[in-house]
Write a structure and sequence with these properties.
With about 150 residues, the chain is mostly helical. It is built from 5 helices and no strands.
């Protein structure tokens, strides 16, 4: 019996994640007056579709050569730093709101992943500009109420 290769395992995980997203997104209640072609279920369904396509690809494609490791120790460390950035961002959303959490998270990610290739003040300008664009798109273009944070800033 063939050993279940890592790419096949990843394919199964992607398909399970897609099914979970579809199941959970199906629970989102949409009032009749809010019904539109693009609604609160649209983007989760798109994400689920992407995960499903990737899962099918990983299950069906032919791996050439030897089964390789998922990541090196350095790559794992960088993945954990990215996870830490997401945790920081979520905590920032809860306490500070989107207005401040987005620029802080962008700044931290730029500083972590550029590793001295960009000065701190350029990273700060980048974070403030893109944080403002991000906030502006949600609040003014999409007219979505965003978290203000419990500190009310």
């Amino acid at each position: 019996m063939n050993k279940l290769r890592k790419d096949r395992q990843l394919g199964i995980i992607c398909l399970l994640l897609a099914a979970f997203i579809v199941f959970e997104s199906g629970k989102i209640k949409i009032r009749k007056e809010e019904f539109a072609m693009v609604g609160p279920r649209t983007f989760p369904f798109i994400a689920a579709g992407i995960f499903a396509v990737c899962g099918i690809y990983f299950l069906l494609h032919k791996l050439e050569g030897k089964d390789k490791v998922y990541m090196t120790r350095t790559q794992f460390g960088r993945a954990m730093m990215m996870f830490g950035c997401y945790v920081l961002y979520l905590a920032g959303l809860y306490f500070l709101g989107l207005k401040f959490a987005a620029p802080i998270a962008i700044f931290v990610m730029v500083m972590l992943f550029c590793r001295g290739k960009i000065s701190w003040w350029k990273a700060l300008v980048y974070a403030v500009v893109f944080g403002a664009v991000f906030y502006g798109l949600y609040v003014y273009a999409f007219q979505i109420r965003v978290p203000a944070g419990i500190l009310g800033l």
